[in-house]
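cache lookup: miss for this entity combination. No prior model stored, computing from scratch. Input as submitted by user K.M.:
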Amino acid sequence: MFKRDLVYWRGRIAVWLAHWVFGSVIFASCLAVNAVAAPSEGELRAAVIVAIIRFTSWPVMENAVLEVCLVGRPVSENILLSISGKQKVATRTLNVHVAKRGSDDCQVMVIGADVGDAEYEQLMAAATEKAILTVCDGCRRGQGEEAIIQLKLRQQKVIFEVNLVQARSSGVSLDAQLLELATVVRK
Amino acid sequence: MSPVSHRSFRTKVLSSILSSVFITLGLTGLGLIAIESWLNDKKLHQDMEVLADILGNRSRAALEFGDTNAGQLNLSAAKYQKYVDTVCLYDQSGTLFSTYIRSDAGYECSDDLAGAEAKQNRWQSTARRDVWHLDASLGTVVVTANRSFIFENLRFFIPLLLVLIAVVLLLVTRMLRRIMRSVTQPLEELHETAQALVENAYSSRRATKRSDDEIGELVDVFNRMLDNLASENLALQSSENRFRILTSNAPIGIFQLDADNNLVYANERWYKITGTQADARAWEIHESRIIKDDMDLYRASWERARRKNHAVLVEYRYQNEQGGEKFLMENVAPLAASLGMIGTLADVSELKNAQKELEKLAFYDPLTGLPNRRFFVDLLGFGLAKAKRGVAKAAVLVLDMDNFKRVNDLLGHSGGDQLLQQQAQRIRAAVREQDAVSRMGGDEFTIMLAPINEISEVTSLAKRVLDAVNLPITVGAHTLEVGASIGVALYPADGETAEDLMRNADMALYEAKRFGA
């Protein structure tokens, strides 16, 4: 009896603390947003995508330009397009463009929500064959896990999950440190 | 003489060598500590640089993604390095990104990179590494370590070193003791043997040779030296015995004085000559018996012997126990190095008397006691020289008894001799003190009158002599009247030399005899 009450109250306290912490974080975030001009979600996602690219290597890296294809209107589309030709990763300049369906020139493919399931599967299959880093940026529900990188927004933070099986299949190498930062690594 | 502290040779050598070993080990230990500290410092710095490299490299993703939690997690790996106080990770703009601070460090990371550099002190060692990814600098990692870690290892090293020094000293001491014992034991035996010989110069004890090395050779030489010394002692003893027998039975006195003029040795003969007893006052009594007139000569002779460092012969008169005088002859010489004086003493009274007797025989007529012809010639020479210096006159008278042969015939030679003795006394009494009377032989006498101021003095003195001689004389039962004749020669009128004067006086006597007869 006493043991059951102890477990019960422990659970209650934990829930109460979780609510309190969550509320505090939200409150603090609101304050922070009000105090400094916080980056937009698109900016955050774009920054994370660029950072991920910096920890990624391809079988062939001689080109001076790194082609970044945007498919299905990803959340970071505008930001990425804005840095096209300006941002460099090592010696390679990022060339960001909205891709036609099934473009052959991509080393990075950022996929948005505006992609149907069939097309999504086609893109994944093509990416696997051509060593393309697939990044799911705001994919539809049910999509994303097949992509090498899946971005998510959690508590005002952009986090990412890694599909290491897909990365190995496509021939794209990810830095171990990147894997350490990933919230989920699928092997 | 300054006091000398007694420390055994073994102790001196042991303490010297142990001090040297201790100093050497101490200096070596200090050197090792310095080297160890330097190496620890160098190793610490290298470790920190490696750590900064590792942490910086591992923080690339955290910096790239701005994930401070990941950065914090990476930096916390430094907790396994005890010497690390803080690890501060700064981003590209130099702003503090994440930190690791050891709980007891007492330091904190500065908010910016410039502040981190200013915060360093001598007890901290800092390694700084830029974090690069691809071709871009992502930030800077600064590792700060506490340099006390350098001395952490010394906490074990120093006691170990001290124990090592103690063990080495112990081993060296034991080893040295054994070596020193093997060296000093024979020396101690030599010393004991020498000591035994000091106590008894005739001891037959000899040192034992225990090894065939330098010390063994020393023992051999020492024993040979003792053998030589023993044989020399024996020879010396024999010589001393001979000397003692010789001195004891010597016909002369032998004595030795020390540097303070104390009599240290005298043989029996010396005591017999000086009439003293063998006691402490013997020498004092001996000196007191030297006739006062000869004391100066005696002292001067001793002084000369000491000053010139050679033997001196001195003859002096000595008062014997009965109050009479005797003549002593002393030969004294200084001993080397101011050790005193040594000398011989002989009673030369008999010799001296014999010498006097001989002198008397050589210069005097044994019958009358008057100077003989030879002595008279010398006296005459002196008298003439004196007269010459004084611009005075002198006279030589030759007197001869008349009919002396008949006296001899009447009274015999003994009676004649008695007559001559009485006449000699009369002649001597008739002339002045400064005049000389001699018997030339037989019944002939020669008289020197000098100095003479007036001729009348010669006449007067000659008359007095003749008057004295002409007086009746009693020899035995007979009373005789014996006349005499005189020949006179005047200086310088009749001659200037003794020979001339005596010859002219003889001629005058001859003339007188001829006219008188």
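stored under new cache key. The CA atoms of residues 28 and 137 of chain A lie 26 Å apart.
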